[in-house]
Design goal:
This protein has 364 residues and is of the alpha/beta class. Strands 2, 3, 4, 5, 10, 14, 15 and 16 form an 8-stranded mixed sheet that branches. Strands 1, 6, 7, 8 and 9 form a 5-stranded antiparallel sheet that branches. Strands 12-11-13 form a 3-stranded antiparallel sheet. Helix 5 packs across helix 6 and helix 10 packs across helix 12.
Length: 364
């Protein structure tokens, strides 16, 4: 551990530490193009198979046909692969513009260079790379694995059901971070009670204060359109469940999963699954109202992708096409991503042309 970390973070809530570890302007994990732009520490749906983008394109195309003035705004675009594949599969049904929103500014030149290499010239004129969402936006918002990277507070109960909050401190002599517990912040305690979270003994809870505020802010940018929120998560009853006493906080480094966020600071991903009931509640408090909730496996299966498969088969050698088929199986398999990743679709001043059939999971 370098001493520069201590000057940037000395002590605070785990949420503050997670924000520092992921988003610090010079030390944060997401701020390094070489380390994070390609998401080389773990696999994401766009890198597993272009069929992920093809399914989103099939969903979006009718809306872009009906609303030719609409654009697409992708938040947290990673290495830009979803953008490349999505524009390819949209064919003639292109958006007015394609905004890639990433507040990690030092990745913008990387994204620009990558997209210039991968996109045909006819698509490059659509691209705008931005640090914040566009105002008065009309179109389709895509947020793939964005919410799970938002900082969470950690609260733990003891055998007597007394709650404490985890905090993090930097030990200068040992050059390392350590845990300590204290009385939960009043906002965290109020949120815990307000959400009706069940209290279990010896249980760790992740409490997001960031998601409601982020959704509120996003709503102010949008005047009309749809939003697709795609992430790992559960309904609240599943999220806070006695079978999950350690919560969902996860770290990834070089494709190795572990549960210690206090090591490899700035050199590993940290995430927590999404409480989709919280997301639905947050959307319901804005004009971006939740309209559909469906597992990734069902969402993909409900799209007509025969044309996409035929296109890929005609364009690629058999070996590469088979890799796409194998990757698609991981996207659909219930034990892999099929029922681990969920799509929540919201609308503002717009109507769903065809509502995806959900899995019968009640959020509210």
């Amino acid at each position: 551990m370098q001493k520069s970390h201590a000057r940037s973070f000395e002590t605070g809530s785990f949420a503050a530490f997670m924000d520092f570890a992921l988003y610090h302007p010079t030390l944060g994990y997401y701020q390094s193009p070489s380390r994070q732009a390609c998401r080389g520490d773990y696999l994401t749906a766009p890198t597993l198979s272009p069929i992920f983008a093809a399914s989103i394109a099939a969903f979006c195309a009718p809306y872009l046909q009906k609303n030719p003035e609409w654009s697409i705004m992708e938040i947290g675009p990673g290495d830009g692969q979803l953008c490349v594949d999505l524009l390819t599969f949209l064919g003639p049904d292109l958006p007015q513009q394609y905004h890639l929103v990433d507040h990690t500014l030092n990745k913008h030149s990387f994204l620009s260079h990558t997209l210039q290499e991968k996109l045909p010239e006819k698509h490059q004129g659509l691209i705008q790379i931005r640090a914040s969402p566009i105002t008065d936006f009309k179109g389709i918002i895509i947020a793939n694995e964005v919410l799970d990277a938002m900082p969470v507070h950690l609260v733990v109960s003891n055998n007597d059901l007394i709650l404490k909050e985890y905090f993090v401190a930097y030990q200068a002599k040992k050059h390392q971070y350590t845990w300590f517990t204290n009385t939960p912040h009043p906002d965290v305690m109020h949120t815990f009670n307000d959400r009706g979270i069940p209290l279990y003994p010896n249980h760790q809870y992740e409490i997001s204060l960031a998601i409601p505020q982020w959704i509120h802010n996003l709503d102010t940018y949008v005047s009309q359109g749809l939003a697709l929120f795609i992430d790992y998560g559960y309904s609240r009853s599943e999220y806070y469940h006695p079978k999950r006493p350690q919560g969902t906080l996860t770290c990834y480094r070089q494709h190795q999963q572990h549960h210690n966020p206090l090591i490899n600071v700035g050199n590993q991903d940290i995430s927590a699954h999404v409480d989709f009931t919280l997301l639905a509640e947050s959307l319901s408090n804005t004009h971006l109202r939740p309209k559909a909730f469906v597992s990734q496996g069902l969402f993909i299966a409900q799209q007509n992708l025969s044309g996409a498969f035929n296109h890929l088969k005609s364009q690629l050698p058999h070996k590469h096409y088979q890799q796409i088929i194998d990757g698609s199986k991981l996207l659909l398999h219930p034990v892999e991503m099929g029922q681990q990743v969920w799509f929540m679709i919201a609308a503002k001043n717009a109507t769903l042309l065809k509502e995806p059939m959900g899995d019968g999971l009640h959020l509210l």
